[in-house]
Amino acid sequence: MSVGVAILGSTGSIGCSALQVLARQRERFRVVALTAHSNADLLQRQATDWAPGYVGIVNGGRREAGGGMRTGPECLVEAATHPDVQIVVNAIVGAAGLEATLAALRAGKRVALANKETLVMAGELVTRTAREGGGEIVPVDSEHSAVLQCITGRRAGELARLILTASGGPFRTWTPERVAGATVDEALRHPTWKMGKKITVDSASLVNKALEVIEAHFLFGLPYEGVDVVVHPQSVVHAFVEFVDGSVLAQVGFPTMELPILYALTHPDRVPDAGARRFDPVAAGTLTFEPVAAGLYPAYGLGRAAALVGGTAATTFNAANEVAVELFLEGKIRFGRIAETIARVLEGHHATAAASLETVLAADADARRLAREAACS
Ligand code: NAD
Ligand code: MG
User: Confidence class of residue 67 from pLDDT cuts 50, 70 and 90?
Assistant: First the structure.
């Protein structure tokens, strides 16, 4: 019997990669549900190719309503809890993915999670919901997939430290002054990965790595002192895992999201993938590692500090960043203003535990309002 899969955000970069992986694994998996935000044309083409039982569009307007597509934000939870679905690939960008993840976990599904923002905004709530609902979170993020691949089969007490790698983004060799005035085009020129716009900007500011540190803390249960980051411009080593005896394992490969997506579907098993690009150490060439230059990536430090405070501080960090990145992409603020906005919103924030959905959503809404004021004042 094949395993039923829902893809939330099927029209995005990760969603499209997931469909490419599934096209090569048709004997193991079947696509049961697809959802997207507003790209109805692409979603319709995907629905024609895959004939899932359920297709939903959040912002579809009237035209699609008659075409067999469900419309409105409730389609996300409907797809995530569909009875024929065993695995939910959450490839939505940003806070909009939270309720579907919670609903899937409550319904006991596996969530193959690309949507890291929601683990940052509500890590305690999401991990508790998984425990209580019998659901399972398996990371799609390449660094966290690398960690999971290295620790599978080990006991939790054997794990000592994680070192996540970061490409350093397009501004790695720039001065902080030049970075502050970078244009949207410059920020979107990622050296090694092809991704959606929001995560590409997050990779340029290194906010993405701060989000990933928090993601790793919640996924693997390590304190923040045990989650280090190193800049590795070639993006070949995805993460290092240090064990209590000092031994270090790493997972390596050319940068592609297809492997971590497939692994999130099959974990702890591995299945053959005829389409996977084989690794060649000679072609990979020289691999280099450097420390994170704090002055170049001020938002990264803010994210780590918010992580240490915990609770709604992480929610606030994430929401302020989402708003600032949106304003930057719209050309309304300069690149340097992203970190300044996050700093100002965090300065006035009094953190509390982020244990309930109401608390999380209220902190998220407050931070968004304050970020809009701070960014444009
Ligand atoms: P993307 O912008 O290409 O795609 C986003 C998807 O989310 C689209 O399908 C869109 O329809 C959907 N979406 C957006 N807003 C929505 C809303 N309000 N309601 C419902 N659906 C909505 O982004 P992406 O690069 O595919 O990234 C998706 C997620 O995966 C992000 O959380 C990102 O951090 C994470 N991620 C991406 C990569 C990558 O290589 N692209 C790697 C690791 C993690
Ligand atoms: Mg990553």
Answer: low
> In sequence order, what are the beta bridge partners of 164?
229, 239
Centre of ligand 1 to C-alpha 169, Å, is 18
Nearest Cα to 211, choosing from 91, 300, 111? 300
Q: What is the pTM of this model?
A: 0.97
Tell whether the torsion through CA atoms of 10, 14, 16 and 18 is positive or negative. negative
Boundary of a domain, candidates 86, 120, 140: 140
Q: How far is the CA of 48 from the centre of ligand 2 (A)?
A: 31
- Asked whether the beta carbons of 357 and 125 are under 8 A apart, the reply is yes
CATH of residue 90's domain is: 3.40.50.720
The count of residues in the chain is 377
Domain count within the chain: 3
Domain ranges, residue 58: 3-140
289: nearest Cα among 226, 223, 238, 214? 238
What's the one-letter identity of residue 239?
Answer: A
Residue 291: CB partners within 8 Å, gap ≥ 6?
230, 231
Burial of 99 per CB tally in 10 Å (0-12, 13-18, 19+): middle
Is the distance from the beta carbon of residue 341 to the nearest atom of ligand 1 less than 6 Å?
A: no
User: Is residue 122 assigned to a domain?
Assistant: yes
Give yes or no for residue 212 CB within 6 A of ligand 1: no
Residue 34: helix, strand or coil by DSSP? strand
In a domain, 24, yes or no: yes
Backbone CA torsion sign across 275, 209, 224, 134: negative
Distance CA 375, CA 377 (A): 6
- Is residue 262 within a helix (H) or strand (E), and if so which, with residue range? helix 258-266
Q: How many whole angstroms from 160 Cα to the centroid of ligand 1?
A: 31
**Is 268 part of a structural domain of the chain?**
no
| Residue 337 shares a structural domain with residue 285 | no
Angle between helices 258-266 and 142-151 (to 10 degrees): 50
Distance between CA 321 and CA 370 in Å, rounded?
11
As a whole number of angstroms, the distance between CA 299 and CA 207 comes to 6
48 shares a domain with 14: yes
Contact between 1 and 82 under an 8 Å Cβ cutoff? The reply is: no
* pLDDT tens track for 181-226: 999 999 999 888 889 999 999 999 999 999 999 999 999 999 999 9
